[in-house]
Amino acid sequence: MKRILVIFAHPAIQKSRINQQMIRALRGLEWVTVNDLYDNYPDFYIDVIKEQQLLMLHDTIVWHHPFYWYSCPSLLKEWFDLVLEHDFAYGKKGTSLEGKDAISVLTTGARKEVYSEKGRNRYTINQFLIPFQQSAALCRMNYLPPFVVHGSYTIPSEEINNYAEQYKKLILSLRDEKLDKKKMNSVEYLNELIENNA
Amino acid sequence: MHNQDFFFQALIYLGAAVISVPIAKKMGLGSVLGYLLAGVIIGPFILGLVGNEADEVMHFAEFGVVLMLFVIGLELQPSLLWKMRKSIFGLGGLQVLITSVVIAAVAVLFGFRLNNAIAIGLILALSSTAIVIQTLTEKGLLRNVAGKSAFSVLLFQDMAVIPVLALLPILATWGSSINLAQSDLDKVTGVSSMPGWAQLLLITGVIAAIIFIGRFIARHVFRLVAETGLHEIFTALGLLLVIGIALAMDAIGLSPALGTFIAGVVLAENEYRHELESTIEPFKGLLLGLFFISVGASINFNLFVEQPFKILAYVLLLILLKFIVLFILGRIFKLRKGYDFLFAFLLAQSSEFSFVLISFSIQNQLFETQTAGILLLVVTLSMTISPLLLIFNDKAVRPILSRRENKQDFDEFDEINPVIIAGFGRFGLALGRFLLANKIQVTIIDSNPANVEILRKYGFKLFYGDVTRPQVLEKAGIEKAKMLILSMAEHEDALKIAKHVRKNYPRLRILARAKDIFHVFEFYKLHVRITQREMFNSATELGVKALVQLGFTRYEAYRAGRIFKHHEEQVLEELYSTWKEDEKEFIRETQRFSKQLSETLLTERNYTIHESDDAWDVDSARKESIESSSSKE
């Protein structure tokens, strides 16, 4: 059993059908903690100590957010800036996060084709995620491929539930260690593993 | 017809009250004076609408005093009373003793026999609970230092009435041949013929019974009655309780007022306290009013017309003597900064209990009718003048005092700091704590001595002074200061200071607490641009909390609050420019007020809190995305 911490950041959750559903799917799962940053720190005043304790209490850290301007919403960036302190998360003495898994969970408005060399965005999601990947590496964490929901603008409402279910399945598999580490590192998105399992 | 007679009387009394009390209050005279004047006007010497029965009415209305003490008792927890024991027995005891002696001595000088002189001293030493408490309540001074001291004295006086009642017959028999007193005393205090120990036992027993019933039984009875849901039965129970106690106390020779006061204190911790209080309140108010009216109506102007100067001289002498004793005692008991004057003026009259004692003395043939009449007149007039004394204190003594105090009593500043905070009430306290927490060196000045005293106990360093006076600001080092923060609640004063400081120290930064939007504009005119409306932010914050409770996400609610505040700031600028243009047209001021108000409201209606959330409002992007994907197909 792994303890999962989902650090969720969405400034306008009330407008996002897909993220609402995804988060709702995680509610009440044992060993899973959802940490809604915009709900806990609406004024951006982050309780650093509490956040660090949460990190230490969990084995797998999930950064769940909509993909805004090729990055995360500002409060999550604030969280990175303040919580991952020197001597806590990185540096000679900063070994608190060592060996933990880290995963990005994203929703994007555009469809997947747009995120490719020939698409409008010219780079893949994994290329855009290099800052997150390297941040995790600096903290000596294992950064796994992301779980991505593309085309949130155009997903028909009836399909939203499928994504939410997939997400829930992913989190449960991570919790129960049902996914093979090697396989995980070989895919582009973790979505593929869940889809194949199903 | 007897009935018609009664209703006619009621009509006159109520009519007089309804007409004169509002007028008196409008003129700033307080309700007591209004009632008294109403009494004088309907009394036999002006309109003659009521006559001899005024005495009877007064007797009935004395029940108002009893009810009043009950209500006061309800507000006093026993622990509070215990805390006041020093001032009740010390201050109260000394007041009765010294005042009696002084008045008696003067009476001897006027040629009274010693026993009569002592009786006069004891009778006149008392002060009017009804007038003082009513005035204190009306002015919100009951919890003030002077108010509390006055209350302690009154409480002691109420207790003192009992031994004085016992003493008067002895004084009557002492050194004279008349010996009817004992039997007369029996009429009033039936138990006084018992041996001393039995009296003591009886009194203790009755009081113990009151306490026992109040503590253990009353609660259940109240609950039973409250459960019926019939409010009038609860009212009946309240009155029953008070009347019962009053009668019981009367029967054992104690003051009914004291008895109900004890009952009130005992019930102070009862959960039905507030309901009981609001039940008794209207009766208390009306009966007290009636009481004051009957005091006014019973003034014997015939006696007054015969020798007006002599009577007036007596009244003034009485008030002067009482005032001096009270003032000195107030000083001894550490009343300062004008509270000594307030305290002395408050209690300088004689009491409604004086009436009781005088009529009792007449029964005991202690005084001749003429003397008793003059005494009654003096007591009544002293009570009538009493509210005027307070007005005199407010309008004449206090201003002079505070002007003089400014020179003498204000604190000397022993440090000069870059920031001066003027006013350290609720607003200033939060502000000051914030700055101090950030290691900003501040000089805090507050003009409320009580506030200064309290906050010093909490470890704040603050100076007592009146910042509206230029000298005080100079001494506080305004020349070297960088910033002056006006956080006082007195809005006009704040503007006055801002004006003065702008002119004389143009480089000093001024920040100000503002009452409302127009107050902000007044500051703008003085080029004080950094202001904060005192209620605005906290109200908005509560609004944010409300949104969260109504289902908004915390961040959404927080942003809504921020957007609203920001929007207000912008509107403020716009409104200010319109306000400035129109400013000279004085006649249109009121119109402008309503016009601007509707303008503000209009802007409010058009704005939505989500307008700057567009970045996250994916609607347009979604629309575009859907359009482009369908066009490809």
TrEMBL record, chain A:
Top-level lineage group: Bacteria
Keywords noted in UniProt: Oxidoreductase
Pfam name, any one: Flavodoxin_2
The Flavodoxin-like fold domain, residue ranges: 2-169
One GO MF term attached to the UniProt entry: NAD(P)H dehydrogenase (quinone) activity
Protein name stated in the entry: NAD(P)H oxidoreductase
Biological classification of the source: Bacteria, Pseudomonadati, Bacteroidota, Bacteroidia, Marinilabiliales
UniProtKB/TrEMBL annotation, chain B:
The keyword Thylakoid appears for this protein: no
GO CC terms of this entry: endomembrane system; plasma membrane
Topology in the lipid bilayer: Multi-pass membrane protein
Keyword Cell inner membrane among record annotations: no
Transmembrane segments: 6-25, 32-51, 57-76, 88-112, 118-137, 149-176, 196-218, 230-248, 285-305, 311-329, 341-362, 374-393
Pfam families documented for this protein: Na_H_Exchanger, TrkA_N
Domain RCK N-terminal: from-to ranges: 416-535
A GO biological-process term: proton transmembrane transport
Subcellular compartments: Endomembrane system
GO molecular function, one term: potassium ion transmembrane transporter activity
Keywords, ordered alphabetically: Antiport, Cell membrane, Ion transport, Membrane, Potassium, Potassium transport, Transmembrane, Transmembrane helix, Transport
Main localization category: membrane
NCBIfam families: 2a37
Family listed: Belongs to the monovalent cation:proton antiporter 2 (CPA2) transporter (TC 2.A.37) family.
Name of the protein this chain belongs to: Potassium transporter
Species this chain originates from: Maribellus comscasis
